[in-house]
Amino acid sequence: MPREFSRASRMAAQIHRELAELFARGVGDPRLHRTTVSRVEVTRDLARAIIYLEVHVPQHVEETLRAAMKARGFIRREMARRIRARALPELQFAWDAELEQANRVVTLIDSTVSREARESASAATPKQEKEDE
């Protein structure tokens, strides 16, 4: 019976769980406490893991990524202690811009809906005046 998930996706899920906990409790750098691990992608050969971070303060993206890269050795050691695997993938960090893009789309939709509501309200007003006469 074939497995439902590949080895790489299982490793990614495990790294995601452990990193989320580690960032919440174990990392001493306060710049990393403002981050959330949004997703983890592991290559098929398990050599590299790309960790996508959501930074809650958009102005601190570069600073947070630098802090993550600086703490990469500590993070990798902690991950090796927590994850039972023959070899742990090389960790790379990247900013996940999907949340910011989603917020931008929601803002555009809201502004379009409110503009259309104003336009329909202003278009309905002259018709009602003509009907009242």
Q: Top keywords for this entry?
A:
2 domains; single chain; GMP Synthetase, Chain A, domain 3; alpha+beta; 133 residues
Textual characterization of the structure:
- The structure is a single chain.
- With 133 residues, the protein is α+β, with helices and mostly antiparallel strands.
- It has two domains: 1-96, 2-Layer Sandwich (GMP Synthetase, Chain A, domain 3), CATH 3.30.300.20; 97-133.
- 57% of the residues lie in helices and 17% in strands.
- The protein is built from four helices and three strands, in the order H-E-E-H-H-E-H.
- The protein has helices spanning 7-26, 61-70, 72-82, 98-132, and strands at 35-42, 48-55, 90-95.
- A three-stranded mixed β-sheet has the order 1-2-3, with helices on one face.
- Strand 1 (35-42) and strand 2 (48-55) form a beta hairpin.
- Helix 1 packs across helix 3.
- It is elongated, with a radius of gyration of 24 Å.
- The termini are far apart.
